[in-house]
Write a structure and sequence with these properties.
Arc Repressor Mutant, subunit A; 3-stranded antiparallel β-sheet; two-stranded antiparallel ribbon
Length: about 160
């Protein structure tokens, strides 16, 4: 179990798990997401992309381009953060911008051939991580966890 500790005023140490309660579902979800992102991000760094860039490339797969607003909505990122992510992808030739064929005022983002090749390689990185999780949990728990997370993300909780 990960226990996040940090300093607060006057040198005191705060144990966030104790503060929120070790049974806090929200806290466990956040910790699991951050741990997974850290591990995947480390593996993706070998491909010179970070997690946000990877997520954007996954959405850009296919023939249809996406507008910046669509990308930022689907990735839950601010427009300014999304612009920085796309700027890095474009500067690394992993994506490109082009005018919308139906509305020349609108700019769409497309995955490049290099970006598609990176996604193909990256799927192996993600698959390796998921095999590690499955080895830790077992196949039945992994399937159950996946189904529960799917159900959780398909509905508004509050």
């Amino acid at each position: 179990m990960i226990v996040a500790k940090g300093r607060t005023g006057r040198g005191a140490t705060l144990d966030f798990m104790s503060t929120l309660g070790t049974t806090s579902l929200l806290w466990r979800i956040v910790l699991a997401e951050r741990q997974a992102a850290r591990e995947i991000d480390g593996l993706l760094r070998a491909e010179n992309v970070d997690m946000e860039q990877w997520r954007a490339l996954l959405l850009l797969q296919g023939d249809a381009g996406l507008a910046m607003g669509e990308l930022s909505d689907q990735l839950s990122l601010s427009t300014s953060t999304m612009t920085k992510v796309i700027d890095r992808l474009v500067s690394n030739a992993l994506a490109y911008r082009a005018p919308d064929a139906n509305d020349r005022r609108k700019v769409l983002i497309f995955i490049s051939e290099m970006g598609a090749e990176l996604v193909a390689r990256g799927h192996g990185v993600v698959a390796a991580y998921e095999r590690g999780v499955e080895a830790k949990l077992g196949g039945q728990k992994m399937s159950r966890l996946s189904a529960l997370l799917e159900a959780l993300t398909q509905t508004d909780v509050v």
